[in-house]
Amino acid sequence: MKIRELREEGRSILSCLANLPNLSQVPPEQIAKEVDLILLFTLAENTEKDLSWLLINLDLEVSEQGKDRAISCFNRRAESEPVASIFGEKEFYGRIFEVSRDVLIPRPETELLVELALEKARMLEPPILVLEIGVGSGCVMISLVLELMQEKEIASRPIEYWASDISEKAIEVAKSNAEKHACRDKIRWFSGDLFEAFPKLDDSFKSLLVVSNPPYIGKGDCLPRDVSQFEPAQALFAEKEGFEIIEQIIQGVERFSQGLAGFLLLEIGYTQGSSALECSRRAGLGEGLELHQDLAGHDRVAEIKLQNFEK
Length: 311
Ligand SMILES: C[S@@+](CC[C@H](N)C(=O)[O-])C[C@H]1O[C@@H](n2cnc3c(N)ncnc32)[C@H](O)[C@@H]1O
Prior knowledge:
The chain is α/β, with parallel strands linked by helices. The chain has helices at 3-14, 28-43, 51-56, 64-78, 83-87, 111-123, 139-150, 152-155, 168-180, 225-228, 233-236, 244-257, 273-282, and strands spanning 89-92, 95-98, 128-133, 159-165, 187-191, 207-212, 217-218, 237-238, 261-267, 289-293, 299-305. The longest helix has 16 residues, at 28-43. Residues 103-104, 106, 110, 133-137, 139-140, 164-167, 170, 193-194, 213-215, 234-235, 245 line the site of S-adenosylmethionine.
């Protein structure tokens, strides 16, 4: 069988995704793209994983083993399993991260959280503590460490990185990703609930940057099948229509920070901006709240200044 024929077979196997109920439906252009990704992933050598390789080699004969691998991936995708979960990896902020069923698959919109965190880290007075609640695959924290290490002026400043998750399995995935990206020892790892996971701060730091992409989907909300069936509920859902963990972080940050200057950056659901503002006001932080929009124009990150930050 040639790659061209296998491509047709893939499109036919995945065509069922176009007929799923609304939310889970995959448009035909996306199906065609995913078929090509699966072919690249299963047939191409590591060095050749770009679309031009596929297009040039459409008349190449596929080995029996290659064909079986591709068909098995097509069948998994036809059951709604996300491509990233089939491949066990996902690109985020220009790097590849391992994913498993224990972690959220990194989302492109979360790159905004990284952008803003980098911007804030550059402004803060050292020694700085950069802390992430809910590290998941590690994509946010590892991107921050690697990006800041590359910036000469910042790399020389004293910065500590602390990362936590309530899921031990997620922390294992994050550690493995950090190992692959040669920064595991740069990060201190903690497991536990929100701020309780961390030791009490002493006077080693002048400023604090807290970053989190917490679960923020309401328990009753409908989700596409590839998300609801293949990603961990603990990474997705929170009580109070998805707002409970955001609220707990906003309410807890001042006590944890003990008056340190800095910022809290929270990824939020696009309808949660006004609740974040109200909650910050109640916590005495509302004056410093700014909402940032993602590429689709939706409120996506709430930036909250910690009280002592003057600039
Ligand atoms: C939406 S995922 C974000 C993962 C990763 N940071 C990212 O942006 O892709 C939320 C993470 O928070 C963790 N989590 C949920 N509840 C938590 C809690 N109470 N304390 C700490 N982590 C929590 C979940 O296990 C999950 O890994």
